[in-house]
Design a protein that fits this description.
By secondary structure, the protein is α/β, with parallel strands linked by helices. It contains 16 helices and 17 strands. The chain has helices spanning about 35-50, 90, 95-100, 140-145, 150-155, 165, 175-185, 190-195, 200-210, 215-225, 270-285, 305-315, 330-335, 360, 365-370, 375-380, and strands at about 1-10, 15-20, 25-30, 60-65, 70-80, 105-110, 115-120, 125, 130, 160, 230-235, 255-260, 290-295, 320-325, 340-345, 350-355, 380. The strands form 2 sheets. It has a 15-stranded mixed sheet that branches. A two-stranded antiparallel ribbon has the order 11-12.
Length: about 375
């Protein structure tokens, strides 16, 4: 999957993203509070919708390609607002299940040919009116097994949010220990791991435990980034480590061996090292067509590895990256052609291509200095 164009509106909150374009590698830049992270969350909202979620008052319009750009899909839709601003809507975890929003309209085309057209009262497949048997609160994408519709759901399930909170599972549960034991049997090949929807941490562990060559490549890249590391594994604990938590016997823990240190390090691994490993694993263990969202790319990464990880990400032309950053080092190191400059006026977010501002490339200054002196950037959030 590759997202080409996207617009989004949440009528329940008044937040709107004007139509924007995406390339292979996209760096969202802008002042804090302008809406960069919300753009990533809006894309993840569509993944939820494609899997049957009902989202209050959300409208969207997205164009994307699959199968190496051979098939271009255009998907539009809208859910009706529930009309309530009551705080219980946010406090009650079961509110969405009790009060699902209904589909107002939906449209899907493939290479310009209409597949689905839907409104409050009618559904058309390939131009033919269908009986109203589908759920009024779920997208047709989530409900249909049509051979032209199923790739849409599959494509949206290739979108992943790549950060520590979403990639590292709840490690200390007996349930996850049992889950991994089953996964180890199910996912034995590199292809099967790449095409799974598993967290990157699990993919790394499966590559290690199945002794796949790709893990050696990942380890080599990681050690080049952290030369004081001698070895790396994701393996089961043993001995005294299991006396307090015996159910963890079958859970793969990340373990490092540093030069000059006899024991393996388990609990003292830095967040930066873990995040670097997750990013490296993502590049090596994601299937072609994966869309990878990274919010605040620099968080946890030291200056010593920012360059190496950024270079690695830009090398994978068969993946699409959409990342946000405030870090001068990252912004200056990524070509301006990949910048998406985000601005907001009241509730409307607009994304600009760097090429729109000819004075950027004309100035003989550090790219980040040029950016922060751009009026549109400096005045990123306007009240009116």
């Amino acid at each position: 999957m590759k997202i080409k164009r996207f617009s989004y509106e949440n009528k329940a909150t008044g937040w709107k993203l004007a139509p924007m374009e995406f390339g292979d590698f996209n760096l969202l830049v802008g002042v804090s509070g302008v809406g960069k992270s919300k753009i990533l969350r809006a894309i993840l909202d569509l993944k939820q919708i494609a899997n049957g979620e009902s989202l209050d008052g959300v409208a969207w319009d997205i164009t994307f390609t699959v199968d190496e750009d051979e098939h271009e899909y255009h998907w539009q839709g809208e859910f009706a607002p529930t009309g309530t601003g009551d705080i219980t809507k946010y406090l009650d975890k079961d509110y969405k299940a009790k009060h699902p929003s209904k589909i107002v309209k939906e449209y899907l085309s493939l290479n310009g040919t209409e597949i689905i057209r839907r409104d409050k009262t009618n559904i058309y497949f390939y131009g033919k009116k269908q009986p109203l048997k589908l759920s009024a609160t779920k997208s047709v994408i989530a409900l249909s097994d049509d051979e032209s519709v199923m790739p849409v759901r599959t494509s949206f399930n290739q979108i992943i949010r790549n950060d520590l909170t979403s990639m590292v599972p709840e490690m200390f549960t007996s349930l996850f220990s049992m889950q991994f034991y089953g996964l180890l049997i199910q996912y034995r090949t590199l292809e099967s791991i790449k095409n799974s929807d598993l967290p990157i941490y699990f993919r790394l562990a499966l590559a290690y435990k199945n002794k796949l060559d790709v893990f050696s490549e990942i380890k080599k890249y990681f050690i080049n980034m952290f030369p004081h590391v001698e070895d790396l594994k994701l393996d089961y604990l043993s001995g005294r480590n299991l006396q307090l938590e015996p159910h963890l016997a079958k859970f793969p823990f990340l373990q490092l061996k540093e030069k000059g240190v006899n024991s393996w390090i388990i609990s003292d691994i830095s967040e930066g090292m873990l995040k670097a490993l997750i990013q490296i694993g993502c590049v090596y263990l994601c299937a072609t067509g994966t869309v990878i969202l990274i919010d605040e790319f620099e968080n946890g990464l030291g200056v010593n590895c920012i360059d190496a990880v950024a270079d690695l990400l830009t090398e994978r032309r068969d993946l699409q990256f959409i990342i946000t950053s405030h870090h001068p080092y990252i912004i200056s190191g990524i070509p301006m052609k990949n910048w998406k400059i985000v601005t907001r006026q009241q509730g409307i977010v607009t994304v600009h291509e760097a090429q729109e501002f000819k004075r950027l490339s004309a100035l003989k200054l550090d790219p980040f200095i040029q950016l922060i002196n751009l009026p549109e950037y400096a005045e990123g959030v306007k009240a009116e």
